[in-house]
Description:
Elements: H1 13-19, H2 28-31, E1 46-52, H3 65-79, E2 88-94, H4 99-112, E3 117-119, H5 129-134, E4 139-142, E5 155-157, E6 176-179, H6 181-190, E7 194-200, H7 203-218, E8 222-228, H8 235-245, E9 249-253, H9 256-269, E10 275-278, H10 287-290, H11 295-298, E11 301-305, H12 316-324, H13 333-350, H14 358-365, E12 391-395, E13 397-402, E14 406-410, E15 418-426
Parallel strand pairs: 1-2, 1-3, 3-4, 4-5, 7-8, 7-9, 9-10, 10-11
Antiparallel strand pairs: 6-15, 11-13, 12-15, 13-14
Amino acid sequence: xxxxxxxxxxxxxxxxxxxxxxxxxxxxxxxxxxxxxxxxxxxxxxxxxxxxxxxxxxxxxxxxxxxxxxxxxxxxxxxxxxxxxxxxxxxxxxxxxxxxxxxxxxxxxxxxxxxxxxxxxxxxxxxxxxxxxxxxxxxxxxxxxxxxxxxxxxxxxxxxxxxxxxxxxxxxxxxxxxxxxxxxxxxxxxxxxxxxxxxxxxxxxxxxxxxxxxxxxxxxxxxxxxxxxxxxxxxxxxxxxxxxxxxxxxxxxxxxxxxxxxxxxxxxxxxxxxxxxxxxxxxxxxxxxxxxxxxxxxxxxxxxxxxxxxxxxxxxxxxxxxxxxxxxxxxxxxxxxxxxxxxxxxxxxxxxxxxxxxxxxxxxxxxxxxxxxxxxxxxxxxxxxxxxxxxxxxxxxxxxxxxxxxxxxxxxxxxxxxxxxxxxxxxx
Length: 428
């Protein structure tokens, strides 16, 4: 529920790795034993962990997509023989969407299970992030719902980072940055000029909404802001005001259920917009079911993100993902990004010339080279920059829902739908 922000690991990471931060057990206990001429190849499983807020206050399916995508990738990988003959053993943990639960999951996976890495972390309150970082455990392809991925070394969000990430303040001295590429696109391609932003009265949602509003204003939009109570949302009142304000676009920082309720209310009051724009969290195949009571709003749904449309099955990597998840009840963009996160870990593990260790996996992640998961991601990079960029060339994946067709890619190929846009600060 937040934009891309960029950063990197600090140079001090090398010293931390050399000191063997984290576990007091020998590396061979959780990463595999060295092989050599006199020792047979290690075929013990590689343990990875996945933390998801499955039973969070905002709903059971809200944060499980990346977990399910990663598990699907590892199932397919294991069926093909694993990594160098070693199967990947996946350990999942539901933190319940709370900081206490998150710390318990970190303890279970990092300290007890001794996983070599976390993959596709998607948690409402990542309170255990400092412990993950202190243990030197690479957290690969997580969803940056809060500021942890812009704060700590060894944490690598699915969207990349350019920030120092030394474990102090998030981003640059407490400020994170995001671009205006989404708003530039709708202004350029659809002539939109008035936009509304709807959020919950919850920290992550409200913080994301504030950044959206700032970005819209920077691109010259007239902006209307709306907020609903997370526990007792009055979407009909919001929809009525949207109609009165005559918004061209509606952006949100809501979950799928909230989006569906807002769309239903918009249809009920007759609010018509050029585009009801949501984020990758709500980009899924269950639109006909979730929005069954809002046919007009449903066909005005647009999504934007930094990964390739999961309905773009003419792309080989997307087809591979869809073939592996054909029996899933629903497919989502976050599920595809979880698949990409698992692929990222796999490529990192395969890069190890000796045993697959936390250190060698982490070294792959911080090598400073772009990664695109076989074309599934807009190229992702981790660098350490002392100052935030003022502008950045940013590329965008865009899709629109059409009944009978699903999510249809708009704006051309995501790697070419790019703009040089300002980077705006925000605090979270």
